[in-house]
Amino acid sequence: MIDRVAAYLSREFYEEQFQMEQVPETYLTPQYNLARGTYATLLLMRDRRLRLERVRWGGLLGTQSFDPADREADASEIVQKRRALFPVNGFFIWSDDRENTQPFYVKRIDSDPIYIPAVIKTDSNGDQHFEILQQEANVLILPLTQQMPRAILQEKIPVWLNEAIPEKDALKRSEQEMGLSDLTVHRVSEDLNDPERNEEELLRPLPK
For position 126, which CATH number holds? Predict the structure, then answer.
């Protein structure tokens, strides 16, 4: 399961790429070690325009992932779902061997953002949280862990966010493949294991 990411996209990025105006600075605080259970900045469609919104990653109810086989576990408690995107610079993985605490950072070779598809859930109490869509890891990541996030092509963002298109079809039409030639992975400091740490140096590759 992917439960830690780096997200530090700038105001200029959102203004240039999505023609956004008046983006709150609090939405753009660099998060170099963002853990599941905390608030994250999502991209979603509201009033036919792309907006940013802060939502908690992961809820008190439900499953750890958002795979189709798991996602209806808390269906009786959820009263609304809507699609969103979780723009990140990269994500962290650990070995499935629980005794190995060495973290690795995964990002695109071209350093472009990864737009992770997400679903925001609202429960009967009005509380919101989101889960990300994951898939089986590719050959680069599989030696360490079984899962990796899915990704959406930037030019296909409106397709994924269009609720009039069934979710399965929207994903099929907008998904971005992330193969061996698209990603790079390197070891980073075990200081990352402390979710309270939030320094850019956490992303620095360790010497081989």
Answer: 3.90.1680.10
